[in-house]
Amino acid sequence: MPTESASSSRCGVAWARKQVRDLAVAVNVPPGDAGRFADALVAADVQGIPTHGISRLNVYLRRIQAGLINPRAKLSVIRQRGGVLVLDANHGLGQVQALKALDRLVPLAREHGVAVATIRNSQHFGALSYYCNQAAAQDMILIASTNGEPAMSPEGGCQAFFGTNPLAASFPTGRGGPVKIDFATAIVARGNIIAAQKRGQPIPPGWALNGEGEPTTDAAAALAGTVLTLGGHKGYALALMLEVLSGVLSGAAIGPAVGSMYKDMNRRQGVGHFFCLLDIAAFMEVSEFKQRIDQTIDGIKACRKRPGVSEILIPGESSHREAQQNRLQGIPVDESTQSEIKQLCMDLGVKFRLGPVARSRSACTRRRPLSRVTAQVHRGAKSHSNFRGLTHQAHGRPQ
Ligand SMILES: NC(=O)c1ccc[n+]([C@@H]2O[C@H](COP(=O)([O-])OP(=O)(O)OC[C@H]3O[C@@H](n4cnc5c(N)ncnc54)[C@H](O)[C@@H]3O)[C@@H](O)[C@H]2O)c1
Questions:
Q1: The whole model's pTM is what?
Q2: pLDDT by residue (tens digit) across 303-327?
Q3: The domain 73-282 is classified under which CATH number: 3.30.1370.60, 3.60.40.10, 3.30.1390.10, 3.90.226.10?
């Protein structure tokens, strides 16, 4: 997937985080929450998922300004039994509420071995692997999903019913970064079509149908129509499963009742999320798990390759490599995102900071004390070198 267009320039990671944080504070998000929101958003850009990073900042903040997202919402517990938590995000920022949910789940998973949360009344909360990577950094496995605004039809239909309902999980390894599995049940995340529309470019054939159910390469027609499911009827079935876990079981809005982030500027989204957190230590010694997953990776990488293929990649590996580059060179920010953020800065009286990377490199590469977990990750990285993509950290809170 292209992540950098000809018209994009790079911005230092630290400056991008500060920009997002300052703007969020300007719309009444408490500073601590604004920092977490900024970290989640910029991490997506760092990890090479710009469709779910700062390109969404404008719409999140406009929805706060329109009273559709509560910038100071608390996360409330509706029910609890054992390791099960039923949570209400009270229409707060999805990223912040999801992180607060994870804060509550971690001690429960340590106690019970497994902890599960449903979260209702939430919003679009970006790239799921961000939350999964946080869990992996604590030697836990988070299986995460969400429903979303209608974008895909059931197999045979041409009316949007499901969101592109993504599924994600990250698995800690002994070599630095986690194995990161994170995908929409659509053939592509809808963010790619939104990005093509913003750039005024067509989308590849096979991604979407227009409103009449005919194949289209026109991004606007695709957004008005439906995105195709991943693998036809199998993606449909998987999307339904995730809709049941994230929407039905959570008490959130279901299918077309979920509000559109871009089109419905007069109603809340009511998204639901599903988090299942496993404490690896409840199953086996963490060191044994890591040794076994490393062995699995080695086996996969050693598979005989198809003609013309130079390397078999592990899910998350290319993203880890991209993250290393983006931390050094800054994240690509396309022209339309830059002008949206410039406008937000003017409207909110905030200094525009998405300047060229040269100005911000020192801030972006400034060394910060390593957390205990990240330090372990770095130590692990030194002792193994045969899995290049995952050897140089890149999970947990991004640098
Ligand atoms: N919040 C929401 O409502 C929502 C909805 C849809 C998608 N999303 C997010 O959009 C993002 C992108 O989703 P997507 O479906 O476009 O993902 P994608 O197609 O870019 O990647 C899917 C998975 O395949 C892996 N992968 C890709 N190429 C590979 C290769 N050659 N070898 C091995 N593994 C490989 C990736 O590491 C990833 O785990 C995700 O972060 C997802 O969470 C969010």
A1: 0.89
A2: 999 999 999 999 999 999 999 999 9
A3: 3.30.1370.60
